What we know:
Radius of gyration: 17 Å
Number of helices: 3
Oligomer: single chain
Shape: elongated
Helix content: 55-70%
Strand content: under 5%
Amino acid sequence: MAEIELHVLNAQCLNRHIATMDEMQEEVLAWQEYRNNKNAKIYWQFTAKDARIKLKRLYPTFID
């Protein structure tokens, strides 16, 4: 989920030149407040079960 939010931050806020670090911090804080108030949701493309099949190499299997 963090990667998704970072991608959205980059696309919506950091996709232009920002002259100073202070200005960047103000922009990111404003974006964060907007995003939190919007209650943005992530719409997953598949279930966790499907992900375990599709992304098998990323989900380790534990044998008892």
